[in-house]
Hints:
With 365 residues, the chain is an alpha+beta fold. It has three domains: 109 residues, no CATH class; 97 residues, Phosphorylase Kinase, domain 1; 128 residues, no CATH class. It has twelve helices and 16 strands. A hairpin with a 2-residue loop joins strand 1 and strand 2. The model has no long low-confidence stretch (mean pLDDT 93).
Amino acid sequence: MVEKVNILNIFAWDQPMGRMVITNENVCVFEYDSDYLSTGKSLSPFHLPIRPGAITARRDPFNGCFGVFNDSLPDGWGNLLIDRFLISQNIRPNSLSILDRLSIVGQSGMGVLTYEPVYKFDSITEINDLNILAAEVEKILAETQYESGILSELVEMGGSSGGARPKVMLNINGEPWIVKFKSTHDPDNMGEVEYQYSIVAKKCGIEMPETKLLEGKYFGVKRFDREDEQKIHIHSASGLLYADHRFPSLDYVDLIKAAFVLTKNIEEAYKLFRLMAFNILTGNKDDHAKNFSFIFKKGQWLVSPAYDLVPSDGYNGNHSTTILGKGRAAKNDILEVAKLCNLNQKKAELIFDMVYVNCKEIRIK
């Protein structure tokens, strides 16, 4: 039974950050813990400033939630898992509030944020056999009524993860990894494709986490929100900028400018310019606002390592993040973005040319 949560306690780096309630209009209200205020660390500087007193969230685009906490909520795959679990417990999924769902995320989410009270699952069994997990994923995607005994385990391993594709979070050789499985409409070699894109991205100078093609041809990526057993705060561009990832709501010009404002480091802006060039040249059109993130590490904001780099159709063949307001772009458009973002034109052209040459094996025609 999932008990209704009236007051959600929120922790950052396992220290009290604040409390959140939800109004009768289903809008969240947050108040910082008095001790946390003294740290001066806003984990969402544009929309959740450090100040005493109650702070009320906007209705849109996160259904009354704050962007930074919305980042902790699952997307397509995680929501499917949680909803199937709720139905198995005779609970209507739409009866849960944002606070209830964050309590299910509890301590298993990405980044530094954790939530209490934590929903406790009954006797979880650790499962590390990827073929078993892949078979169960396939059943869940194919069956309306999924009655396997490991649903709780799958929720615990992947219910708080973002993205539409099935995935689990587990340890490989004592280190935290994310392993992805193919979804219903993916090609059978999806793991190999994403692995190839990750290798080519590194050749193009894009910062990527360590990646592997695991036994069974499953794609694995090492978590970059964990380092030496320390938690690192991660905040998506969607949550930071209040850009809805479900449809084109962000332009690369605004994204790159925001990176400079947040990080105060022009090199971080160049990282996103390079990634933009890669996405356009290789046909990664699923470049929505949740597929860019920032990390807060050792007191500094940085552009996160890249992730979810795969060929995709996007919205009607257009990029999810627009280029000068357009869904498709040529070289002159890419360089115009650099100009509007006050990037050095010569350096921008060198970056474009380097990406163009090094991505030739996956470059779209």
